[in-house]
Specification:
Blueprint: H1 8-68
Length: about 70
């Protein structure tokens, strides 16, 4: 007795479903990475703004000290 050959169409359909599942997983990962990147960029912008404020404060203090020392 010969063993019947598996249905190739069923095999292809199963592979297609697996690939679609993997694609959905990759898309989900990419979306999460994009959201994390946006959050990091926002945090960097906030840190840059805070750094600029601190730099301005430091410059103002230096100016006051220079004036006090007669420069």
């Amino acid at each position: 007795m010969e063993t019947p050959e598996p249905d190739r169409l069923t095999h292809v359909e199963v592979m297609l479903e697996q690939q679609q599942t993997l694609l959905a997983t990759v898309r989900g990962l990419a979306e999460r990475q994009a959201m994390q990147l946006i959050a990091i960029k926002q945090q960097l912008a906030q840190h840059d703004a805070r750094f600029d404020q601190l730099q301005q404060t430091l410059d103002a203090i230096k100016d006051l000290l220079d004036r006090g020392n007669g420069h």
